[in-house]
Design brief:
- With 113 residues, the chain is mainly alpha-helical.
- The chain has a domain of 65 residues.
- The protein contains two helices and two strands; from the N terminus they run αββα.
- α1 packs antiparallel against α2.
- The chain is elongated.
Length: 113
């Protein structure tokens, strides 16, 4: 017996919906630990470069600063100058941050009043 239009057989159990595959989360690319590790590696590289610089520039030079005289190796003298420059920059930065915080505090008082 052949039929041209067979009827589908219906069952009582519903067909389960296809479950979407759980999205695969990539591992975190930036964490505090990774940032600390990168900072430590960068610091170690900078220190190594500074050590090489100081060891290659051992020629003694005369240093005079506001009447104080002395002799240092060229590498150490330049390193001290760089550290002094960084400290001056940090002091200016601290002053600017204080200025911005005071300005923000004034703006906050004006908004709440």
């Amino acid at each position: 017996m052949t039929t041209d239009n067979p009827e589908p057989v219906q069952t009582d159990a519903p067909t389960p919906a296809p479950t979407p595959a759980a999205p695969h989360e990539p591992p975190p690319t930036h964490t505090r630990t990774s940032a600390a590790f990168k900072g430590l590696v960068a610091g170690a590289v900078v220190l190594l470069l500074l050590l090489i610089f100081i060891l290659e520039n051992t020629q003694r030079v005369k240093i005079s600063y506001f009447g104080a005289d002395g002799h240092l190796s060229l590498g150490v003298a330049l390193l001290l100058a760089a550290v002094a420059g960084a400290l001056i920059t940090a002091l200016v930065g601290v002053a600017r941050i204080g200025q911005l915080r005071a300005h923000a505090r004034r703006q906050g008082r004006q908004r709440s009043a």
